[in-house]
Amino acid sequence: QVQLVESGGGLVQAGGSLRLSCAASGRTFSSRAMGWFRQAPGKERDFVAAISWSGVSTYYGDSVKGRFTISRDNANNTVYLQMNSLKPEDTAVYYCSAGFRVNDYSDYHSYNSWGQGTQVTVSS
Question: How wide is the angle at C-alpha 99 spanned by C-alphas 2 and 84, nearest 5°?
Fold first, then answer.
């Protein structure tokens, strides 16, 4: 497993942008798929975005397509989530995750390492 620490959350007005970072420890980061999920109060954890170990393939949830971009820097063991055109419904705790040999990138069961989460609040 890898240890994951998210940062970059905060309060932003609708239409604004935030960039989340997830720093990973451990030597296996570059071999792991990485994902972002989010969970709003009283709701299930939803898939946001994922990226393959190489960074060649990216995947997005329908609600964030065209607004969010996931990327990774394997040299620095970091994955990013650039969030643009934020909406109040994007408000949630955002979790970074890592998985090995992931088949279904949108299924949170595919990931075995999780960060503690970072709060994103979008005001209207």
Answer: 95
Summarize pLDDT for 35-60 with one digit per residue, the tens.
999 999 999 999 999 999 999 999 99
* Beta strand spans in the chain (E): 3-7, 10-13, 18-25, 33-39, 46-51, 58-60, 68-73, 78-83, 92-99, 113-114, 118-123
Two tokens, residue 39: 């969970």
Write the single-letter amino acid at 16. G
Residue 111, amino acid: Y
Q: Terminal CA-to-CA distance of the chain, rounded, Å?
A: 38
| Contact yes or no for 72/52 (Cβ under 8 A) | no
- What averages of pLDDT result for each successive group of 10 residues across the chain (124 residues)? 94 98 90 96 96 96 98 96 98 97 94 97 97
Q: Where are the alpha helices (DSSP H) in the chain?
A: none
